Amino acid sequence: MSNTQARPVESERIPLKARNVSFSWEDTPLHWVPGDPFTTHTINVLHLLLPAGERWFVHVYKQVLPLIRDDRLREDVVGFIGQEAMHSQAHDEVLPHLREQGLDPTPYTAQVDWFFEKLLGGTPPLLNAWVVPPSPGRARRWWLLERVALIAAIEHYTAFLGDWVLNAAELDRRGADPTMLDLLRWHGAEEVEHRSVAFDLFMHVDGSYRRRVRTWATAFSALVFLWQRGTRFFMENDPTLVDGKASFKEFHRSGRRGTLPTTGAMLRSIPRYLSHAYHPSQEGSTAQAVAYLASSPAALAAEKTGS
After folding, report:
1. Could you tell me the maximum CA-CA distance found in the chain, to the nearest angstrom?
2. Residues 137, 65 contacting (CB under 8 angstroms)
3. b/e string for 241-258 if b means 16 or more Cβ within 10 A?
């Protein structure tokens, strides 16, 4: 059942390390893309989803480590865990800044925490009982492999977003806050840097194409639902907006302006992931990611302090 047609690009693999970055938010305005609250808040959803989501990644990967039989892959997974833990912390630190500006995300983050910690964090949910094997041991393994596959699907999109933000020159042209851009591009560069790890791990422990398709559908649907819900939450609760609204039409317009990914690019990413020949190393550029990390103010500061 393994996807033996996947073709990794060996030259794209580099050792992974966590960079202990920090950011100061005192001078970052609420609408850090000037005059564009919709783009600001659509991207701000990352700060709501990623802390809980990436803690969940770490939780699952610590459970799967004993199943890894390849030393190099284990090294990659350990590096991935370190980077994801740092991403979670960095985005979590933006939330107090939002509260100080009158936008308390707690009602939404409470739902996200429940989704990752309760629904996806423990035993198989009842809604999946019809496909869970009957014995407790087989059920636990099934649920672990299912979550490994979900993470691989989600990482396809985090790498897609990372590649996009590294190339989103329109945000610079519109005067987006440099500290926020550095957070997004540091994170995006590391997503591109480790973009193959989740898929390689899935192929190593399982590789079922049916599972890949099923979990992609689940992950994609959940991401679209949570993201549009988060954008609506921000727009409706922004204290500076009288009648803030979010819509797919506005998302499409922003994509055409270059301040968000285009709808077409997102749709074209679907058949690539579902192709039997897919491998993440074929997407994005490790060289570009490494080049940004060599110039990122936050990454450079972390390097100087030896952290």
Report:
1. 57
2. no
3. eeebebeeebbeebbeeb
Torsion angles phi and psi, residue 27, rounded to 5: -100, 10
Q: How far is CA 229 from CA 41, 126, 219, in A?
A: 11, 24, 15
CB 12 within 8 Å of CB 159: no
Q: Report which residue type is found at 244.
A: G
Q: What is the pLDDT of residues 203-260, one digit of tens each?
A: 999 999 999 999 999 999 999 999 999 999 999 999 999 999 999 999 999 999 999 9
Residue with tokens 């990794």: 8
Q: Whole-angstrom Cα distance, residue 297 to residue 27?
A: 16
Tokens at 283, concatenated:
């997407």
What tokens were used for 293? 């990390």
The DSSP output letter for 24 is -
Distances (CA, A) of 108 to 7, 49, 58, 75, 115: 40, 9, 22, 35, 11
Q: Whose CA is closest to 232, among 47, 30, 41?
A: 41
The answer to whether residues 183 and 28 touch, using CB atoms and an 8 Å cutoff, is: no
What's at 283, amino acid-wise?
E
Closest residue by Cα to residue 158 from 132, 182, 189, 181: 189
Residue carrying the six token digits 């925490």: 113
- The predicted-structure confidence for 165-194, as pLDDT tens digits, reads as follows 999 999 999 999 999 999 999 999 999 999
Closest CA to 201 of 210, 212, 192: 212
Phi-psi region of 7 (alpha: psi -120 to 50; beta: other; left: phi over 0): beta
Task: For 51-81, write each residue's pLDDT tens digit.
Answer: 999 999 999 999 999 999 999 999 999 999 9
Task: Return the percent helix, strand and coil in the chain, to nearest 5.
Answer: 70, 0, 30
